[in-house]
Each structure stands twice: as C-alpha cells, then as structure tokens.
C-alpha cells in the first residue's frame, strides 16, 4: 500500500470516528436540555405551557421573558407568545403575559 492510499484510509477512519463522536455529543446535549427543561417545569412552572416549548429567553430589566414558537397550541391566532417570569421570593408560579 502506498503512503497516499494509507493516508486516505486513515483520514476516512478518523472522519468516521469524528462523526460518531459528534452524534454522541448531539444526543448528550439533547438529553441534558430535556432534563434541564423538566427541572425548570418542576421548580419554576409557567402559568401556561412548558419550558420544553420555549424557543428563547430574554432578560428585560428585572424580568425574564420566555418566547414560545408561533405555532404553539397554547397561543391562538398564530401570534408569537411571551410568558413573563418575574422572580419573587416565595412565589414559584410565573404569570403569562
């Protein structure tokens, strides 16, 4: 086997290993994200919907805004929805805006 053929075979093997590692990493990230959102649902439940449905969060002054997907079943009319999270000592339920 020539050096070039050996190098190509090694490169292909390395690419396959990297693809496997990337797939495992992606699966682990999804699992951590699902677990984290389930924990948020337990500790800081939203008045409407679930943290698993939240697309993004934004800190706005003293409030944490949770943005849902436009097609969320909790928000009629197809409008983008926001749930406002206001931290208050002793209060865990978060009112929807």
Describe the structure.
The protein has 97 residues and is of the alpha+beta class. It folds into 2 domains: 1-43; 45-97, no CATH class. Helix content is 42%, strand content 19%. The protein contains 1 helix and 3 strands. It has one helix spanning 3-43, and strands at residues 54-60, 63-68, 82-86. It has a 3-stranded antiparallel sheet, with no helix packed on it. Residues 76-80 and 92-97 have low confidence and may be disordered.
Q: What would the keywords be for this entry?
A:
three-stranded antiparallel sheet; disordered C terminus; 1 helix; 2 domains; alpha+beta; 97 residues
Sketch the major β-sheet: 3 strands, antiparallel
Helix content: 40-55%
**Would you report the number of β strands?**
3
How much beta, percentage-wise? 15-25%
**Class derived from helix and strand content:** alpha+beta
Order of helices and strands: HEEE
What value does the Rg take, in angstroms?
22 Å
Any idea what the shape is? elongated
């Amino acid at each position: 086997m020539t050096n070039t053929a050996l190098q190509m075979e090694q490169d292909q093997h390395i690419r396959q290993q990297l693809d496997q590692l990337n797939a495992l990493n992606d699966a682990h990230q999804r699992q951590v994200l699902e677990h984290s959102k389930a924990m948020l649902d337990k500790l800081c439940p939203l008045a409407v919907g679930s943290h698993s449905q939240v697309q993004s969060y934004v800190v706005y002054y003293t409030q944490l805004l949770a943005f849902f997907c436009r097609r969320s079943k909790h928000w009629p009319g197809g409008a983008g929805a926001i749930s406002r999270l206001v931290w208050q000592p002793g209060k865990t339920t978060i009112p929807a805006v």
